[in-house]
Specification:
Organism: Lacihabitans lacunae
Strand content: under 5%
Keywords: Cell membrane, Membrane, Transmembrane, Transmembrane helix, Transport
CATH architecture: Up-down Bundle
Shape: globular
Number of domains: 1
Main location: membrane
CATH class: Mainly Alpha
Subcellular location: Cell membrane
Number of helices: 15
Radius of gyration: 20 Å
Protein name: Multidrug effflux MFS transporter
Distance between the termini: 43 Å
Largest sheet: none
Order of helices and strands: HHHHHHHHHHHHHHH
Structural class: mainly alpha
Oligomer: single chain
Length: about 400
Amino acid sequence: MIHNRKLLIFILGMLSALGPFSIDTYLSGFPVMAKDLGVSIDYVSYTLSSFFIGISLGQMIYGPLLDRFGRKTPLLIGLLIYTGASAACAISNSIEMLIGFRLLQALGGCVGMVSSRAIVRDVFEVHESAKIFSILILILGVSPMLAPTMGSYMIVHLGWHSVFWFQVGLGLFLVGMVFFFLGETKGADSSLSLKPSVITKTFWGIFTNPQFFTYALAGSLVSGGVYAYISGSPFVFMELFGASEQQYGWIFSLLAGGLILSSQLNNIVLRRYFSEKIMTYTLSIQTVLGLLLLAFTVFGWLNFYSAVVLIFLFLSCQGFSFPNASALSLAPFSKEAGSASALMGALQMGIGSLGAALVGILSNGTALPMTGVMAGLASLGLLIFVLGRYFIKKSKVG
C-alpha cells in the first residue's frame, strides 16, 4: 500500500479522471470530425453515447473482479485495454469504426473510476470518504478545465486523430504509475464467487439497500443532467451562439470552474453539516436552476450570457452533490465495496448515456433538448431523494 497519502490521492484522482478526460479532449472536434468523416454532428455524438454505454457496462464487469482478485491486477488489465483501444480510435477512418472503438476504450478506461472509489472505501474511514471524494473532484476538475483547451489546440494544429494518440500516452503513463507506485489495498478473496447467479444476487442486494438506492439513484439522475449538458453544449455554444472551437474550450473550462470550486467548499461545509443535509439543499437548488434553464429556453430568453451563468451554477451544485452521494451510497459496504462502486458508477453512466442520447434524439435545432433533459433529470433526482429519505426514516422508526 502507498504510505504517501498525497501520491495515493493523486493516482486515484488521475484514475477517476481518465474517463471524463477521454470525453472532454475531443468535444470541440465534433464539427471537424463530422466534416472529415462525411457525417452530421448529431451522428458524431453517437461516439459519446457509445462511450457512456461502455463505461456503464464495463463497471458492472470490473466490480466483482476487483472484489475477487484484488484491486491492482484488474486495474492494470483495464488500463491496457484502454490504451490499445485509444490507438485504434486514432487510426479510425469511418464513424462506425470510431463508435465501436470508443465503446472498447470505455470498457477499458472505466476500471479507473470503479477502482478509485473502491480504494477510497478500502483506505479511509467512512466519515473521511466525502472529504476524499471532494479532493478527487479537484483533480477530476482539471479535466474539464484543461482537456477542452488542450484538445482544441491539438485538433486545430495536428488534426482530431492527435487527441486519441495523446490518450494512448495518458494510458501508458497510468499503467506505469499503477504498476510501480500503487500497492494492493485489498487482497484477493477466493470466497467470492464469479458465477453469474451469485453476481446478480449481490448486485440486487446492493441495489435494494435503501440507503444505496436513495443516494446512488438520486445522485446519478442529477449527474445525468450534467452529461446532457456535455452532449448538447458543442451545438449550443458553437452552432447557436457562434463560438469557435478554441472559444468553446475556454467556455467549457470556465463552466467547469464552478464544479471545482464547489467541491472544495464542500470540505468546509462538511465541518458543520452532515452529508444528508448538504444534499437536501443542493439537489433542490440544482432542480430550480434546471427549470430556469428550461423556462429561459421556452420563452426565448436564453442567450450566451444567461446560458453561461445558469449552467455555471448548475455545475456548481454538482460539486456538492457528487461527493456526498458517493460517500453515503458506499457507506453500508466494505467487503463488497468494488461491486457497490461498480453499480453506483453504472447507474451514473447509464443514466448519463441516456441523457446524452436523448439530447441527440430530440435534436431540433434549438437548445431545448439540452435544457429540457437537464431540468427533467434534476427534478426526477430530487423526487427520488425526497421519497427515499422518507422511507428510510419510516423504516428506522418502524
